[in-house]
């Protein structure tokens, strides 16, 4: 049985052939103009030995639809969105879930769950609100490397 999620916009005039993805594969939706966020996606590609993760930029039609679905702003990407086994994670929990899915030794990041959720969210927001100043911003989404490009869903 195929597990697929189909995200579509009723008001979209432009159909995208890649709006359907296999929900059995973890998906990371990240801010494509953020240097830190793009670096995170590249790091996951390097560490994902099983090549399970798929990626979408928050600026893509799929990214926009998923941000809307999960009640996130689509004009300012304050968090990445990670969907694993049908569960959506945001803020620091998205990083913990990603590390957990990558296996050992990255799975050790689960120890961060001992921090209360409000504190985890506050720490994440502190970095997220200053990420462009700290790490930089591109004028547009970069053209990803071949390995990342093969795993991006529009």
Question: What can you tell me about this protein's structure?
Answer:
The protein is an alpha+beta fold and 154 residues long. The protein has a single domain, classed as Glutaredoxin (3-Layer(aba) Sandwich). Helices cover 37% and strands 14% of the residues. The protein is built from five helices and six strands, in the order E-E-E-H-E-H-E-E-H-H-H. It has helices at 35-47, 61-69, 91-102, 117-135, 146-149, and strands at 4-6, 20-22, 27-30, 54-57, 81-84, 87-90. Strands 4-3-5-6 form a four-stranded mixed beta sheet, with helices on both faces. It is globular and about 35 Å long.
Global morphology: globular
Number of domains: 1
User: Which fold name is given in CATH as the topology?
Assistant: Glutaredoxin
CATH class: Alpha Beta
Integer-rounded radius of gyration: 15 Å
Task: Provide the structure class.
Answer: alpha+beta
Please name the defining characteristics of this protein.
single chain, 154 residues, alpha+beta, Glutaredoxin, two-stranded antiparallel ribbon, 5 helices, 6 strands, 37% helix, 14% strand, disordered N terminus
Write the layout of secondary structure elements.
Layout: E1 4-6, E2 20-22, E3 27-30, H1 35-47, E4 54-57, H2 61-69, E5 81-84, E6 87-90, H3 91-102, H4 117-135, H5 146-149
Parallel strand pairs: 3-4
Antiparallel strand pairs: 1-2, 3-5, 5-6
Task: Briefly characterize the structure.
The protein is of the alpha+beta class and 154 residues long.
